Amino acid sequence: MAAMFYLALTQRLPRTSQFTDSRRAVVASARTLFRALPANELTFKVAAVEAAFAAVGIF
User: Fold this and answer.
1) Looking at the whole model, is its pTM more than 0.90?
2) Which residues contact 40 (CB under 8 A, 6 or more apart)?
3) How far apart are the first and last CA of the chain?
4) Do the beta carbons of residue 50 and residue 27 sit within 8 Å?
5) Predicted pLDDT of residue 18
6) Is residue 44 within 8 Å of residue 31, measured between CB atoms?
7) How far does CA 19 lie from the centroid of its chain?
8) What is the C-alpha to C-alpha distance for residues 42 and 50, in angstroms, rounded to an integer?
9) Average of pLDDT values for 40-58?
10) Sign of the C-alpha dihedral, residues 42, 9, 22, 14?
11) If pLDDT is split at 50, 70 and 90, which confidence band does 50 have?
């Protein structure tokens, strides 16, 4: 989790980002970090990240 947020914060988000931008950046970071996994595992992990953001109302 920390690696996804670190990558998003240091490489994918400008200073003027909003919460919705952070969702997109963290999801993209998850896709990058887990790209070597089999497709079904990658899909599962990305869906978990998206569900976590949705659970707190960030769409």
Assistant:
1) yes
2) none
3) 19
4) yes
5) 95
6) no
7) 12
8) 12
9) 97
10) negative
11) very high
Six-digit token string for 25 = 């950046």
Give me 37's structure tokens. Answer: 């996994």
| Residue given tokens 């690696």 in the structure block | 3
Tokens for 27, please give them: 């999801």
- How does the average pLDDT of the chain come out, rounded? 97
> What SS3 class is residue 4?
helix
**CA distances to 6, 41, 57, 58 from 3, in Å:** 5, 18, 22, 20
Q: What is the DSSP letter of 37?
A: S
* Alpha-carbon dihedral sign for residues 48, 50, 51, 56: positive
**% of the chain at pLDDT higher than 70:** 100
